[in-house]
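Usage example:
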Amino acid sequence: VRLTGDGAAVRIIDQRLLPTEFVEVDLDTLDEVVDAISSLAVRGAPAIGVCAAAGLAMSMLAHEAAPRHAFIAALRTNAERLATARPTAVNLRWALDRAVHAAEGTTGDGRAMRAALVREARAIRDDDLAMSAAIARNALTLLVAEPIRVLTHCNTGALATAGAGTALAPVLVAHAAGRRVEVFATETRPLLQGARLTAWELQRAGVPVTVLADGASAALMRTRAVDAVIVGADRIAANGDVANKVGTYALAVAALHHGIPFYVCAPWSTIDVATPDGNAIPIEMRGRDELAKLGMTRVLPDGVPAWTPAFDITPASLVSAIVTDRGIHRAPFALGAAART
Amino acid sequence: VRLTGDGAAVRIIDQRLLPTEFVEVDLDTLDEVVDAISSLAVRGAPAIGVCAAAGLAMSMLAHEAAPRHAFIAALRTNAERLATARPTAVNLRWALDRAVHAAEGTTGDGRAMRAALVREARAIRDDDLAMSAAIARNALTLLVAEPIRVLTHCNTGALATAGAGTALAPVLVAHAAGRRVEVFATETRPLLQGARLTAWELQRAGVPVTVLADGASAALMRTRAVDAVIVGADRIAANGDVANKVGTYALAVAALHHGIPFYVCAPWSTIDVATPDGNAIPIEMRGRDELAKLGMTRVLPDGVPAWTPAFDITPASLVSAIVTDRGIHRAPFALGAAART
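Running the assembly step on the lines above writes:
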């Protein structure tokens, strides 16, 4: 995810087409960016933030000639539209707030403010790259056994960020450094980010990966084939409760039962100190069709409802450690206090 | 699943086509019956037993004119082929042994022995009907809260047996008796027996049912939307360890974590006293394509392996009760001793 050279378009990989097709698309309207985020063409909490900031900068190109007050009004309107494309990931609003503040803090006309937006979108992307590297460095102080054998969920690699990812970053960095790594990836129903994206990324990187049905994860842990569970996060509350892809909580419960550590890797920007605990995190409900249809085939009888939360909450008590670019955080999580330092 | 009137064919519903198409098929060769079982056109441990006994009786029609020793040799060969169609469900071999013993215990020629096989296949089916009713009666002594709110996995209803099912039997019987029932059904990856079959059966019966991704089950339990988890079994060891559809163990772990009772409903014939514990139960591995493809669409990159056990083992320590047609069995499970009484 990045702004094109002239800042007139946001270039993305359409993740919906992987692994069958690798297609890059240039988005040059606000509607296209909103749709790409809400339809999960772009997904992964950090990547959504990078995409939104780039999309906001792109969308203000048409307003460069506007007077300052009109530019700011349009900027706020566009930011609000992007912010509501998905409700759970806090990085989305964090990146937009950062971009809006950068523009409004710039003296001068629309042209100057738009230049500030482009600079800030690129800075957010650069920071994301540095964030991935820092998370990998910090997480690898926890993953000392050889080989590294982890179970992961959903996709938290390079597709989900600008850099090497969040939960996959330590795996990719360790492999690149010559350490032995084995990854088990849940397929991650309903949208199969594990099978389609994580398996594709790890295979391209040369990391051994095996995919399993989400429901088989507890049975896998019982075989002692993995030494840690490592996942990303879409929002972390001040008390350490974690919102992440639905199915994460089941893995945390099973990890506790088997005495396997459960690590959450996420950028510091994923921590929302304004949210006291998991109960306060809004959980996006996805459409019924994600469970009711496989491609064109109907697998759920018409009229039968589906329960389709996109995310679930893992209480802090099940989290062995939260690894951010700022360090390793353990219970009792006082993330609000840490944020003030 | 039943023998046709003349005993010349086994009539089944092809469960692979549900819920899109409801198709009954008459199988009139041994190959077709073996293929129906191994491809899961017929599935559900009790239904496999009924189907195998019917298939064996059907297959011996061509041998009616054979002398007794030749008939018995062909009978044993055919029974062995059917027994190896799937390795985990013990009802398959139990039903075949029962049929073979009935034939061999009959004096007379091939015609007499074949008549005994037809009678025994029908008796196994009748017993299965009575088994479902007894399981429902026994399980309902445990499900006393109103409404009955359960989470179930895979398909354990009328499609899986000759009667109302195993784990779904109490739900169907209670609904028919006017009690309020709410069922949550996991979709059950990879073959979606929950979405395709359980939802279809319960909708036809008028029982409210909601489908969810397997990985969402723990999050559902956390909402306190269900009061019990109720599943079937493919084989139960003498110590109470349970082999059932992969994903069952994860539900048992999550149920324990949430203080929700975990009930296994199965015919007494599912208990294999010759198997001391779950480690001795062979676990069928399914083909990679069940995870790698959705219909015609490839979702797993070529070359990435999948871990595809059809079943997992839930240790007896996680089982609140095993409900059979003989009663309610609780820890410490001394099922071998019970079998000798």
